[in-house]
Specification:
The complex is a heterodimer of chains A (164) and B (655).
Chain A (H helix, E strand, L loop, with lengths): L2 H30 L1 E5 L1 H6 L13 E8 L5 E2 L5 E7 L4 E7 L11 E10 L2 E8 L9 H8 L9 H9 L2
Parallel strand pairs in A: 1-2, 5-7
Antiparallel strand pairs in A: 2-4, 2-6, 3-4, 4-5, 6-7
Chain B lengths: L1 H29 L2 H5 L1 H24 L6 H6 L6 H6 L5 H22 L5 H25 L24 H30 L4 H33 L9 H26 L3 H23 L13 H26 L13 H31 L5 E3 L1 H21 L11 H24 L6 H26 L4 H7 L2 H26 L1 E8 L3 E4 L2 E12 L3 E12 L2 E13 L4 E5 L1 E4 L3 E10 L4 E10 L1 H19 L13 H5 L2
Antiparallel strand pairs in B: 2-10, 3-4, 4-5, 5-6, 6-7, 8-9, 9-10
The chains are: A alpha+beta (164), B alpha+beta (655).
Chain lengths: 164, 655
């Protein structure tokens, strides 16, 4: 091998190794940081055909409408808990801290946290969009069936959504 | 009435853009002198018509003309006049018009400042700008027209501007950002024009460099302002959220940074030619991808505009056309290009290649983190989100080798560098780095924090290397004094930008490590201690503004008994939009920020408050500012204004 080729080989090998390492690290980090999104009914009934349910201790995101009258505050700290609902089942979110400006009863929010028991989430972050009418798209999908629905099925889907 | 004239001007501008896309290109391929010379007047006409159209929309806002749908949905008669004017780009349609104005501005600037280029080449650049313009003008005119009227039933008053956008940062953030995004269209046009001609020499890179630098400078500024705005306005005390839309602006910046460095190699050494072209195409494509992500409604974020699938589809088709077309041209033309220059393994070329690899890997990380949730959802695998730690972790690993290279890079010669002569300066820098970093740690009395120490080491390494290198370079002119007048501006610019990066790294690491925050329940008279500062809530009272009402909290802050400052935090309720906004109180110093946000009222007399002490957070924006200042200084380099040999003498005289 002449020196020029040798150099080229070194460069190419270095490149491949770097790229491989980078992609490996990326995929690993990605796997560690994916948070699945659930609506309250998905949390209780499971997602998809296989009815996959989250395990206690898992990190996840939950989105739903805050049940009216369910917000309970601790008298002397910033601890607060409230219930979320979409099409039926209710789950409880516990949080300590300041709720976002647009947090309202009856409005859609998204919470990020850990599942502490089957229907309770300990939230580390509560998000509400800067929009009065806001409903997380996944919740809107679950409640109103407004997305990815062919017109022929529209009636069935929305009927299902309005049952509760 | 004025609005109709604006619409008319916009329609004319669209026709001009069609002409601009066809005439100079036709001239360049047929050798038709007249067609080529028409390029400049067409570019100027495009700019003046668009400027008039923009003025017309601004006037409609100024005069509270609520017959215009866009004005009615983004303004209100109670809005102060300066926010009425900035509300022009507060929504989708108006911000697209601003985009057009910026695009036309860049096109006119190309026409004005590149008269010295060969006419054929200039015609091709203008032609490519024209092609891009056709795409955007058609989009605005047919899919997001800001001049739509609601006659005869128009509203009495408008729906008001989103309160989030009623802020000084918002006045300049979008224009800067668009200057950057659209500026990469110029680099793109240069690359495509060069591909059409099939001639790649270093002159091409020299012509493209100042434009790329200018675009990069604006984008840096825009991103920095956006970060500052988010910090001041969102009330979360954060400065970067890895929000998909932030990512959309960050990706072109990363590729643009790689492009600047790669252009340097192409200009100085005549290699990396095809790579540079690819980066120019990439930077602009990512700008377009950003536009698609923000405006199609596929993302939900603070930034995203109202969802409209048709617009998204149009932008996606446009993006694919641009990427596909330019890559096809690239594939056809690039075969014949060969780089002649030779270089050894330890040379500046290879180090800059390393710079590009790291920047592109970073781009890949951001791209993956931004698009993965979208793909995941569209495949029907369920909704997911990717947590901040993903980005933080990977950037943590990327920034270490990147900074090490950055400290070494400017010292290494083109072609080949012997290791021996570098040993002395490098060990000096290493010693300076250790002294600086450990000295700072000792001064702040906290040795155990890994991230902060790492950030200080990297920052000190890059910073001291940049300064020593500048001093050494200046001395080569005889004395430092002489060097100051003789060394070219781009070298000063580079040094400053690298120092800016060092400052940024230190800022990020220190803020990440030492920031403390607490959320507390307070009554008037209560006192809370945080990081040695005593925050005392003096009172909370009602507030009345022009288009909002709310509450304000007054706090006194003292440090170990000494009075530091008075803070005034507000919580506003904007009556028309029916939304609540937090106006945080910030007391800023170079070494730390005190930050207070007023939360909700918990009972009759107690309030929730967020208190933050954020050391070195200013350094983040200071670093960004220095980087973009470095870009500005590099732009002033005389080299970019020197005329090429083929130009007539007359041109030099009136320059």
């Amino acid at each position: 091998m002449n020196p020029r080729r040798q150099k080229r080989l070194v460069a190419v090998t270095a490149f491949v190794l770097l790229l491989g390492g980078a992609i490996g690290a990326m995929l690993y980090a990605l796997q560690q940081n994916i948070d699945l999104f659930y609506t309250p009914s998905q949390l209780i009934d499971g997602i998809g055909d296989k009815k996959v349910k989250p395990e206690v201790g898992q990190r996840l995101r939950i989105g739903g409408m805050v049940v009216k009258g369910s917000v309970r505050r601790a008298p002397d700290s910033l601890k607060v808990s409230f219930d979320l609902v979409d099409t039926g089942p209710i789950v409880t979110v516990e949080y300590e801290g300041i709720l976002p400006d647009l947090f309202r009863e009856g409005q859609g929010i998204v919470a990020q946290g850990v599942l502490v028991d089957k229907t309770t989430i300990l939230a580390s972050e509560v998000l509400a969009k800067h929009d009065e009418e806001y409903m997380p798209p996944e919740v809107a999908e679950a409640m109103k069936g407004i997305k990815h629905v062919p017109p022929s099925q529209l009636y069935k889907e929305s009927d299902k959504g309005q049952q509760p | 009435m004025i609005a109709e004239y604006g619409q008319l001007a916009l329609t004319f501008a669209f026709c001009i853009s069609l002409a601009l896309a066809v005439v100079p290109l036709y001239g360049s391929f047929k050798g038709n002198q007249i067609a080529l010379e028409l390029g400049n007047p067409l570019a100027y006409a495009l700019f003046f018509l668009t400027a008039f159209s923009f003025w017309a929309l601004s006037y409609a806002f100024w005069a509270n003309d609520f017959t215009v749908v866009y004005v009615a949905s983004n303004s209100n008669s109670l809005l102060p006049w300066y926010y009425r004017l900035t509300a022009v780009w507060g929504g989708h349609e108006g911000s697209m018009l601003l985009w057009l104005l910026v695009l036309a501005g860049w096109t006119a600037a190309v026409a004005l400042f590149s008269r010295s280029l060969p006419l054929q080449f200039q015609g091709r650049i203008l032609g490519v700008m024209g092609l891009i313009a056709v795409g955007f003008y058609a989009f605005v005119l047919f899919m997001s027209n800001p001049f739509m009227l609601s006659l005869p039933y128009f509203p009495v008053d408008g729906r008001d501007l989103n309160p989030l956008l009623q802020d000084f940062g918002m006045i300049i953030h979008p224009p800067m950002l668009y200057m950057g995004y659209v500026g990469f269209a110029v680099s793109f046009a240069f690359a495509i024009a060069a591909l059409m001609g099939g001639k790649f020499d270093s002159t091409w890179a020299r012509w493209a460099r100042p434009w790329t630098l200018a675009a990069w400078m604006f984008l840096t500024m825009g991103i920095m302002l956006g970060s500052w705005w988010a910090y001041a306005e969102l009330g979360w005390g954060g400065w970067w959220f890895w929000d998909p839309v932030e990512n959309a602006s960050f990706m072109p910046w990363l590729v643009g940074t790689a492009l600047i460095h790669s252009l340097a190699v192409t200009e100085k050494r005549g290699t990396f030619k095809s790579w540079t072209v690819l980066l120019a195409i990439g930077a602009f494509s990512l700008s377009l991808l950003g536009a698609f992500l923000v405006r199609s409604g596929v993302l939900v974020s603070v930034h995203s505009f109202a969802a409209d699938p048709d617009r998204g589809l149009y932008l996606l088709a446009f993006l694919l056309l641009v990427v596909g077309g330019s890559l096809l041209l690239y594939a056809i033309r690039m075969n014949s290009v060969r780089s002649q220059a030779r270089y050894e393994l330890f040379s500046r070329e290879v180090l800059l290649w390393g710079n590009n690899i790291f920047l592109l890997t970073a781009t890949l990380v951001v791209l993956l983190g931004t698009l993965f949730p979208l793909v995941h959802k569209e495949l029907g695998l369920g909704s997911i989100s990717i947590g901040e730690p993903f980005f933080n972790q990977l950037f943590y690993y990327l920034v270490i080798p990147f900074s090490l290279l950055l400290g070494l890079g400017p010292w290494v010669r083109w072609k080949q560098q012997q290791v021996q002569p570098l040993l002395k300066p490098m060990s000096l820098i290493a010693i300076a780095t250790l002294i600086l970093a450990l000295g700072t740690m000792a001064a702040t009395q906290s040795i155990q924090a890994n991230l902060a120490l790492l950030g200080l080491l990297l920052g000190a390494w890059v910073g001291s290397s940049a300064i020593f290198e500048l001093l050494q370079r200046l001395q080569q002119f005889g004395s430092i004094k002489q060097g100051l007048t003789k060394l070219n501006a781009s070298h000063f610019g580079m040094t400053l930008a690298h120092i800016g990066f060092a400052v940024l790294v230190v800022g990020v690491a220190m803020t990440k490590t030492y920031s403390v925050e607490t959320q507390v329940r307070m009554k008037a008279g209560d006192q809370v201690e945080l990081a040695g500062y005593q925050f005392k809530l003096v009172e909370v009272y009602d507030l009345k503004g022009p288009n909002y009402n709310g509450e304000a909290a007054e706090l006194d802050v003292s440090y170990q008994g000494d009075y530091v400052t008075h803070l005034h935090a507000e919580k506003r309720f904007y009556t028309v939009q029916r939304s609540v906004m937090t106006e945080a109180a910030v007391h800023a110093r170079l070494s730390r920020d005190l930050y207070v946000a007023l939360g909700e009222s918990l009972s009759e007399d107690s309030w929730a408050l967020s208190l933050y002490v954020k050391p070195f957070v200013r350094w983040i924006w200071l670093g960004g500012l220095l980087m973009s200042l470095g870009g500005l200084i590099a732009l002033c380099d005389k080299r970019y204004r020197r005329r090429t040999a083929s130009v007539e003498q007359k041109d030099t005289a009136d320059a």
